[in-house]
Write a structure and sequence with these properties.
With 284 residues, the chain is of the alpha/beta class. It contains eight helices and eleven strands. The strands form two sheets. The protein has a nine-stranded mixed β-sheet with strand order 9-8-7-10-6-1-4-5-11, with helices on both faces. A two-stranded antiparallel ribbon has the order 2-3. It is globular.
């Protein structure tokens, strides 16, 4: 079995669960008042790995481990289009056994510009890394377009599968992939190169490096590139984007509830039936 180069592209996002409701309301109010749409303030919250990207990163490690057991060499690379907040995660990946780590300075907010993000990733693949297999999460916040893996595959001219749950290496530069489709689980054999977009995989958490692992790779370097290094005019492509952010609004996730009174469980059950279920039963 020949050597295989794998590249996993991931995104570090703000922990949106930690945001204050007031931040969302302020952005929505600016838009409603006719002012320029602005993104929600996220600088004060911690950064986390996008959950689907985290699955892809761990899946690549497990694929590397499985190939090593068969005596096959695998080279792992990690790429993030982001600022300095991505470096701790890239250094963690180097400690876990990734051979290459790089980030591309976005120069602007690319959350709602999947075509520009895909252009940067595809250029990195063609000009710098030359992998056989590219893995990404199937979607990432806050845009959640799900378009980036497909746009990367289109730019490279490679086949693409989404909602990938499992991947295993086969002889002759092929991979066996299990992915979720509308009517169940589909198992497909693909010849490399290809792009895989990882979905709700069972492998959902990235392993943790030991202190020994970190010390062994503490001098490993994270390559920092710009769009110009890859021949991509990020600012120019953003100006040509036809899909732009025009506003934000909060999602009401409040749930309504009713407290059923009664002195005993039987009385509560009777009250529940009389007030809420009796008419439904009659209409059956």
């Amino acid at each position: 079995m020949s050597d295989v180069r794998i590249l996993v592209s991931f995104k570090v996002t703000p922990d949106f669960e930690a945001l204050r409701e007031a931040d969302w309301l302020a952005a929505a109010a600016d838009d409603a008042a006719g002012g320029a749409a602005r993104e929600v303030e996220t600088r004060y919250v911690r950064r986390v790995l996008n959950c689907f990207d985290e699955s892809a990163l761990e899946m690549a490690l497990r694929l590397c481990d499985a190939r090593a057991e068969r005596g096959s060499a695998t080279s792992l690379g990690a790429l993030s289009v982001g600022g300095r907040e991505t470096e701790p995660y890239l250094k963690t990946l180097l400690a876990l056994g990734y051979d290459r780590a790089a980030r591309v300075e976005p120069e602007a907010a690319l959350d709602f510009a999947p075509a520009v993000t895909a252009s940067v990733i595809a250029s990195f693949v063609r000009q710098r890394d030359h992998p056989d297999l590219v893995m990404l999460g199937c979607r990432s916040g806050p845009g959640d377009s799900g378009a980036v893996p497909f746009l990367v595959a289109e730019a490279l001219g490679w086949p693409c599968l989404t909602q990938v749950l499992e991947v295993d290496s086969l002889p002759d530069d092929r991979v066996r992939v299990a992915c979720l489709v509308d009517d169940g689980l589909l198992r497909v054999t693909l010849r490399l190169p290809c792009v895989l977009a990882v979905g709700n995989a069972v492998v959902s958490q990235l392993r943790v490096p030991t202190l020994t692992d970190r010390l062994a790779r503490k001098y490993a370097r994270v390559a920092v590139l710009s769009g110009a290094d890859l021949g991509v005019d990020i600012a120019g492509e953003l100006r040509r984007e036809t899909c732009v952010l025009t506003g934000l609004e909060t999602i009401d996730r409040a749930r309504r509830g009713v407290i059923v009174g009664g002195a005993t469980p039987a009385a509560k059950a009777q009250a529940l039936f009389a007030a809420h279920l009796q008419d439904l039963v009659k209409n059956l």
